[in-house]
Amino acid sequence: MDVRWEEAGWERLTGRVGRRRLPVWDCTVGLVVGDDSVLLIDPGSCVREGAQVRAEAERLTGRRVTHIAFTHGHFDHVLGGAAFSGAEVFGAVGLDVLLSTEREELRGDAVRQGLDEAEAAEAVDLLVVPKHLVSGEWTLELGGLQVLLANVGPGHSGHDLAVFVPGERETVFCGDLVEESGEPMAGPDATPRQWPAALDRLLALGGDDALYVPGHGAVVPADFVRAQRATLAARFGVSET
């Protein structure tokens, strides 16, 4: 990896892990580099954005993206997946059914949030559905690096998947279970009363010293996740006991 990540608009988190905050919706894309394989987390909001992310990832790593993980099924996290031909796609169990049966709802939500109608239609027509479904935990071997995919939801959505990357500094990609650049959004597919428990599982995965990567916003420490958990518990009337 001889290209400076910062010059390409990426934030280097550890020797093997980086991420990029995409424009418009400030959605995080994660990149995890093994000796043999490359995992990309949440490929963007449309095919055009996904193609840009793919080109940048290939330039940074010198290899193609071999694996994709969807942290959940919202448009800004999944609609770029069609740009990654041949990649193995992972998601929480049930996400395949959701993305197969609710394409029109996904397209409509993308357009309502500001995505161009033609781009939304193209991305939904080409939508990639995960073939590898995580019901508990799944250890993904990338060559010299084992990444843990964990089904920690429901919470923000019905299909929340976290990605834990070990290393000199453990890193947890949280999806929209954690948001830093705004208040966590609880849409119609959220399960508010179980959301705090999902954050407990994130904290158990990463521990006190990990880097927690929100779906939107800056990287945060464990104390931020705990504070957001307390806020959500109070907001949704969840007992601390």
Describe the model.
With 241 residues, the chain is α/β, with parallel strands linked by helices. 30% of the residues lie in helices and 24% in strands. It has seven helices and twelve strands. It has a seven-stranded mixed beta sheet, covered by helices on one side. A five-stranded mixed beta sheet has the order 8-9-10-11-12, with helices on one face. The longest helix is centred in the N-terminal third of the chain and has 15 residues, at 47-61. The model has no long low-confidence stretch (mean pLDDT 95).
**How much strand content do the residues show?**
15-25%
Largest sheet: 7 strands, mixed
Q: Oligomeric state of the chains? A: single chain
* Strands, count: 12
Poorly predicted residue ranges: none
- How many distinct helices? 7
Strand order of the largest sheet: 1-2-3-4-5-6-7
Helix-strand sequence = EEEEHEHEHHHEEEEEHEH
Q: How far is it from the N-terminal to the C-terminal residue, by CA?
A: 47 Å
How helix-rich are the residues, as a percent range? 25-40%
Mean pLDDT: 95
- Gross geometry: globular
Question: If you compute it from the alpha carbons, what radius of gyration comes out, rounded to the nearest whole angstrom?
Answer: 17 Å
Determine the structural class based on helices, strands and strand pairing.
alpha/beta
